[in-house]
Every structure is written in structure tokens, then in C-alpha cells.
Amino acid sequence: MNQSSGLYKHKARKRFGQNFLHDTHVITSIVSAIAPAQDDHIVEIGPGQGALTAELVPYCQRLDAIELDRDLLTLLLASFSIHKGFHLHNQDALKTDYRELHQGRPLRVVGNLPYNISTPLILKLFEYTDIIADMHFMLQSEVVDRLTAQPHSKAWGRLGIAAQYLCRVERIIDVPPEAFDPAPKVQSAVVKLTPKDSSKVDLEQLGRLQALVKQAFAQRRKTLRNNLKGVVSDVQLEHFGIDPAARAETISLEQWVALSDGIEQF
User: Fold this and answer.
1) What pTM was computed for the model?
2) DSSP secondary structure of the chain
3) Mean pLDDT over residues 8-22, rounded?
4) For position 183, what pLDDT does the model report?
């Protein structure tokens, strides 16, 4: 999704997943949660017509805006090029190399993410947690449910496990459809992701963890014994206190981490 500043009427384009945020209370709540500081380097994904940009760019040292829709570029440049720290990039956020934007200070990433790319984009950004201070995203409420999920729930799965392994995850506010124009058919929510100390993240272990979890959740209704057949034995599962007859959604983050690390040493 994107925001609307009210300065220019741009017809939302379905192929870009555009739903322009116009609710000033929601915008104020997001900015309050971000709390931009003078020395911040903010990366905004999908600035749209700049409603959120307008509330951030005066208060940070640098703001890199990534916008795919060429029809919005003139408006954004006309509105914000007066700020010397504003830099506009007409490119796909899924193909962006965020290390090329990094100039020493940790990046603060914000944006209203199109529903159709939100999950792959978040997974991509997890590759850059060593240079990211935090992330604030407007997402489909269902995606935020998955990010904040706990074991023994239908929402618990690959996305939540990866997110909570790498970040502290906090649901900020829920946003109704009428806060957007056009109104989407789903509820939305804002989430904050704060990467943990990068020195504590073992990238090799993360790779093992993601591969193991992907296999375990391949067919959610099947048991771990069936989904992990040929990968992890019953003896190995039991060694880590895990019932082979359990389903993947019942296993905690701590158990997944211990198992993915431990089976290499078993």
C-alpha cells in the first residue's frame, strides 16, 4: 500500500497494490512510533503520494524513497527535493541492494507494503539485519498475525519463526479499511521489527533453521515424523524433547533453534 498526501490526485493502480492512506490519526500514530531523529537514515519503501514522507523527511538526516510507479516520481520530486537529504529511487524494492544505500548509520526502514510482495520483501530484508536498526511496516493484518504468532496457533509458521529468531516483533496499531482510498477488502496493522544484536545471529544456523522449518511445515497437518522423514530421526527428535508424533505448529522457537543446531552435532 501507499499513502496519499492530498496534493495530487493519482488513481490507485491495482498492479502496484496501491491503497492510499489518508487517515491523519493513523499517520500520526505511525510517525510517533518511528520517532524520527535528526541523525537518522530512513529508507521508505513505497512512499506513494508522500503523506508519510512529509512527516519524516524534515526530521531526519537522509531519506531514501524507493518508488516503482513512474507516474508518482514528478510529484515526489516536486514535493520533497527541497530537502537536501531526500533521495528518490525508481526501482523495485524486491530487487534493491540495501547495502548500496547504507552509509555507515544503521538504516531505519519504513513503508506501507503492497500485500502481494510483503512476505518476500520482509524475508529479503532479513538478509540485511546487520545494517538495519528497525523496521516499521503497514501490512495485511493476517501477515502481522503470522509475524507475532506463538506456538499452538494456526498462524505459527516459517515467517514468524524467522522473524522472531532475528528480531523483536511488536504489533503497534490496527488499521481499518476506511483509512485508505480505495478501501482494501482486508484489515491492516502496523508492526515494528527490531533486529537483535547482529553478533548473536549465526547466519549458518539461520540457514539450517530455515531449511528445517520449511521441510517441517511442508504439510501442516502431517506429523514431524512424516514431514522430516529422512532428515531427522525419531531418536533425534526425542533427544531434544520433541514428540515425533507432534505437528510443526506445536514446536517453540527455542526448540526449533536447538534442533536445527543440535542435529549437526548429533
Assistant:
1) 0.89
2) -EE--SSS-----GGGT--EE--HHHHHHHHHHH---TT-EEEEE--TTSHHHHHHGGGSSEEEEE---GGGHHHHHHHHTTSTTEEEE-S-TTT--TTTT--SSPEEEEEE--TTTHHHHHHHHGGGGGGEEEEEEEEEHHHHHHHH--TTSTT-SHHHHHHHHHEEEEEEEEE-GGGEESPPSS-EEEEEEEEPPGGG--HHHHHHHHHHHHHHTTTTTSBHHHHTTTTS-HHHHHHTT--TTSBGGGS-HHHHHHHHHHTTT-
3) 55
4) 81
